[in-house]
Amino acid sequence: MTPIQRSYVELHIAVFLFGFTAILGDLISLPALSLVWWRVFFTTLSFPFIVPVIRLFRTTPTKTLLKFMGIGLIVALHWVCFFGAIKLSNPSIVLVCMATTSFFTSLVEPIFSKKKIKTYEIVLGLMIVPGMILIVNGAEVGMLLGIGIGLTAALLAAFFATLNKLLVGKLDEKSVSFLELGSAWLFLSLVIPVYYWFSEEGRSLDFWPQSTDWLYLTILALLCTTLAYVLALRSLRHLTAFASNLTVNLEPVYGIVLAFLLLDDKQELDPGFYWGALVILLAVFSYPVMRRWNKRKQNSTL
User: Fold this and answer.
1) What is the rounded end-to-end Cα distance, in angstroms, of the chain?
2) How far apart are CA 299 and CA 302, in angstroms?
3) Span 23-48, mean pLDDT?
4) EamA domain: which residues (predicted)?
């Protein structure tokens, strides 16, 4: 198995676990802010067993540490938006919103990497738009806010995936995961007290997990976060951020199938949702074909 093939296998495992994340987010009774805090708390606790933390801070330049910790803040905001959108709509709709990450990445990645925008990536990204229109048109009014926040989560995902791609190789995947998720926990630990003291909603924030929440949070933290995050980061060594995010668009496939089997999402979805999801998946599977065609076109002009 070549490094690229191994990267795709690892990424698909990570994507399946990410798809299960939405199911757990729906099953856990906590609001988004508390849920993400507990998620990154448990995840951060797991890393000292696999990462030499003291040596990491002693040997890594401060500038590099701060860059990865800054990305961690984006990750925290992404997850708060992601789970907040699930609470406002349902896992299936939010997972499809996340498929627009490839479109946002096609715009964001060239800005940071200073590379030329690839026309076919823009075309693939735009192919997702009609699918989202079908989904939005068929959604209930009460779910529209969830869709908007879900799209915001996708935009934030495009940013942190692109930034991670630029920095990959400076540290190993486990160390990067620890820094980013640890800084996400620190950030939310500062936000929650401020939210509590300065807003009426914060004072009624449900913070402590219920009985079954503990099991779901453990699975969410160790499998769907620690393991999935490390695998996804490692795959970036051999895949572009756009190719990675387009593969991550399979998250709706895994997640929607799981939601259909385990939850009652199918009762809340109309045919427009499934047609929209089909359009988005066509864009996902078109990427390897268009990429291969673009390479042949470039080679033929040399």
Assistant:
1) 30
2) 5
3) 92
4) 13-136, 145-285
Which amino acid, 81? C
What are the CB-based long-range contacts (under 8 Å, 24+) for 212-220?
A: 212/27, 213/28, 213/29, 213/30, 216/24, 216/27, 216/28, 217/28, 217/35, 217/38, 217/39, 217/42, 218/42, 219/24, 220/21, 220/24, 220/25, 220/28, 220/39, 220/42
Burial grade of 278 (CB within 10 A; 0-12, 13-18, 19 or more): exposed
**Higher model confidence: residue 296 or residue 104?**
104
Domain ranges of the chain: 3-301
Tokens of 213: 């929440």
Angle subtended by helix axes 144-167 and 241-248, to nearest 10: 140
Q: How far apart are CA 224 and CA 43, in angstroms?
A: 10
User: Would you call 295 helix, strand, or coil by DSSP?
Assistant: helix
- Locate all alpha helices (DSSP H) within 28-61, ordered by sequence: 32-46, 53-59
Separation CA 148–CA 152 (nearest Å): 6
231 φψ region: left (φ > 0), alpha (ψ -120 to 50), beta (else): alpha
| Confidence check: pLDDT of 194 > 70 | yes
| Separation CA 118–CA 242 (nearest Å) | 11
Is residue 185 predicted with pLDDT exceeding 90?
Answer: yes
Structure tokens belonging to residue 104:
């946002």
DSSP for 141-165 reads GGGHHHHHHHHHHHHHHHHHHHHHH
Q: Residues near 111 by Cβ (< 8 Å), separated by ≥ 6?
A: none
